[in-house]
Amino acid sequence: MSKYLIEVNFQDHANYSVLRENSAQQAKHLNMIPIGLNEVHKTSLHYPLVWIKSSVSGQFKLVALFGFEPGENLYCKNDIWNNNHIPLHLQSDPFYLAYSNNETDKEKYLCVNINSQKIDVNGKKNKTGLTFFNGNGEKNICLHQAQEILATLAHGEMLNEMFIKTANQLDLFQSLSLDITWHNHQTSKILGLYTIDPSKLEQLNENQIYKLKSNGYIEFIHQLNYSLNHIENLIKLKNNLIVKA
Fold it and tell me: What's the structural domain count of the chain?
């Protein structure tokens, strides 16, 4: 279902509520989701983090990998999310930030996707739903939390852009291809993924290393490379499905 975003306001959304737990249902067809550098510390402990290139801009994008093909989410089973950590992009749904067209003052607007299955327009679908506003027309905690998460996501995008610029200058990206043989003896070759090349790091001079360390990038790179260990777990999850099929 496509997104239909409208600005959140009391007049139109006084009776709206958002269901608290529906991450699995909304993400069951996502095989990856964007991640900001400010999420890497937590997310790298749970998911493989890789870089992909936008087919439109050619720009690198950091993502958490959930599956090996479009529409495949191996962490979602029977509408249950089988991981202890939920990335911020899923936590923020169905809320989004929109920006004004004013070039000198980019005002931000909190918007909601009214086509989302997490939205109840009458506030009666589920007793665990959180209403957008209280009786006085003030924003309830769900809107405040959404704004905080969206602000964190926006900051993460800015951090990503800064890191990508530095990594490109130092030629640190390398392509990653996965050759996988499944339990049913079928094979898959996964292309279009990128990582940071450890051997390129070893070739940097002292000034370049100092720049990476001063920006906290060395720690980020270690965390990103550590997260690749979760690819093995992702393969096991798919093999378990193949065996049961």
Answer: 1
